[in-house]
Amino acid sequence: MTSEEIKINVEKALAEIRPFLESDGGNISLVSIEDDRRVKVQLEGACVGCTVNQMTLKSGVEMTIKKYVPQIEEVVNIEK
């Protein structure tokens, strides 16, 4: 998978997750993909400072991204 294909698939994964975050008043955006293995995202809106955002990030976001791009090893939230 090329870097461009990885980016497209990560965006597809985020599009799948986004409605759930939006229903809670939040959102998520892609910041960067490093070495085609590490994804940096930014949680937005109500997701910022939410006590469950680390759990959401690991169980929901990371799992969904890995479903689309199995070679991704880690998903990290970048604080503003």
Which key phrases capture this entry?
80 residues; alpha+beta; GMP Synthetase, Chain A, domain 3; three-stranded mixed beta sheet; 3 strands; 46% helix
Describe the overall structure.
The chain has a single domain, classed as GMP Synthetase, Chain A, domain 3 (2-Layer Sandwich). The mean pLDDT is 89. The chain is built from 2 helices and 3 strands; from the N terminus they run H-E-E-H-E. The radius of gyration is 12 Å and the shape is globular. Strand 2, helix 2 and strand 3 form a beta-alpha-beta unit. Helix 1 crosses helix 2. The protein has a 3-stranded mixed β-sheet, with helices on one face. With 80 residues, it is α+β, with helices and mostly antiparallel strands.
Strand content: 25-35%
Number of domains: 1
Number of strands: 3
CATH level 3 topology: GMP Synthetase, Chain A, domain 3
Helix content: 40-55%
Q: What's the total helix number?
A: 2
Structural class: alpha+beta
The appropriate CATH architecture is 2-Layer Sandwich
N-to-C span: 30 Å
- Quaternary arrangement of the chains shown? single chain
Poorly predicted tracts of residues: none
Classified in CATH, the superfamily is Fe-S cluster assembly (FSCA)
Shape: globular
Largest sheet: 3 strands, mixed
Order of helices and strands: HEEHE
Short description:
The protein is of the alpha+beta class and 80 residues long.
Please write out the topology:
Layout: H1 3-23, E1 26-34, E2 38-45, H2 53-68, E3 74-77
Parallel strand pairs: 2-3
Antiparallel strand pairs: 1-2
Helix pairs in contact: 1-2
